[in-house]
Design brief:
Blueprint lengths: L14 E3 L5 E3 L7 E6 L6 H12 L1 H6 L2 E7 L3 H10 L5 E4 L4 H5 L3 E6 L2 E6 L2 E5 L5 E6 L3 H12 L4
Helix pairs in contact: 1-5
Length: 157
């Protein structure tokens, strides 16, 4: 597993398809702040809670000149269903080959009921207008991810 980028590091750039299959690059958002979050799977309880937390705070996030980008290994089709079902106002990107998750050091060994497997380690990175990491939270709970990312932007709960 690659070491996750740290505060002060330049965020690794990437291009992935969004829920509509259109390519989106992190560098397109220079001049804005970005909450980049990695989650394991569309429409599971924790991932839905995290996504809906960002959705509910989205007006305040936008007031801070920021956007939210969610990344999981799910397909664009799965993202479309998830986004529509929960009325998510932000971009979801499909990292089916987990290259971006690996570049951010959040693809690793997990275990459930004694079974070990590889997957996304729930994480988020807050990136400033110049593309530098200002907050890196790896192995964070869904609720803490939303609270900590919002606090890093200066959004009051």
């Amino acid at each position: 597993m690659t070491t996750p980028p740290q505060v002060g590091d330049q965020a690794p750039d990437f291009t992935l398809p969004n829920e509509a299959g259109e390519p989106v690059s992190l560098s397109q958002f220079r001049g804005k702040r970005v909450i980049l979050y990695f989650y394991p799977k569309d429409d599971t309880p924790g991932c839905t809670s995290q996504a809906c937390g960002f959705r509910d705070a989205y007006p305040q996030i936008e007031e801070q000149n920021a956007v939210v980008i969610g990344i999981s290994p799910d397909s664009t089709k799965s993202h479309t269903k998830f986004k529509t079902k929960h009325n998510l106002p932000f971009i979801l990107l499909a990292d089916e080959e987990h290259r971006v998750a690996e570049a951010y050091g959040v693809w690793g060994e997990k275990s459930m009921m004694g079974k070990k497997y590889m997957g996304i380690i729930r994480s988020h990175f807050v990136i400033d207008e110049e593309g530098r990491i200002v907050q890196a939270e790896v192995k964070v709970s869904p609720a803490d991810s939303v609270k900590r990312a919002l606090a890093a932007l200066g959004v009051k709960p």
